[in-house]
Write a structure and sequence with these properties.
With 166 residues, this protein is α/β, with parallel strands linked by helices. It has a domain of 114 residues: Cytidine Deaminase, domain 2 (3-Layer(aba) Sandwich), CATH 3.40.140. It contains five helices and five strands. The longest helix is centred in the C-terminal third of the chain and has 33 residues. The protein starts with a helix and ends in a 7-residue tail after the last helix. Bound molecules: zinc ion. The site of zinc ion (ZN) has 6 residues, from helix 4. The site of zinc ion has 6 residues, from helix 4.
Amino acid sequence: MALAQAAADEARAAGEVPVGAVLVRGDEVIATGFNHPIGAHDPSAHAEMVALRAAAQVAQNYRLPGCELYVTLEPCLMCAGAIMHARIARVVFGARDPKTGACGSVVDAFANPQLNHHTEVTGGVLESECGAALKSFFAERRRASREARAAARAGVGAQSKPGEPL
Ligand SMILES: [Zn+2]
């Protein structure tokens, strides 16, 4: 999970919502991924998807049996689907996601017996640490947008004096 947290820091450095994922088989790290849908212009560029894609390339196989995925935030429905298609044995996630979590928070994709692959899910690992990284990111973003609005208001004030160079 510490490696997933480091990947989340990479997302944050890129200005993206800080979520990181690591795919391991036993003690071996196969791939890591960080969330970057904005920079990649790709709605599927979630940390889990990036790690799954990279791991499948390494394995030269779209199925990754016996692998475990560690991710700092509860996977969404898209990622849960990809995790099932890849036959991941176990998912370990950090913070719960009350808005899009598909491991019990909003829906529980893995509890549906009609979906034929059964991935073991463990949630809430380093939950407060993983959640704190997200909370501080959003707090920082709200602060920056407040400052931008204040600067815009100040700019409007300056422009309201006709004839003066800005
Ligand atoms: Zn996702």
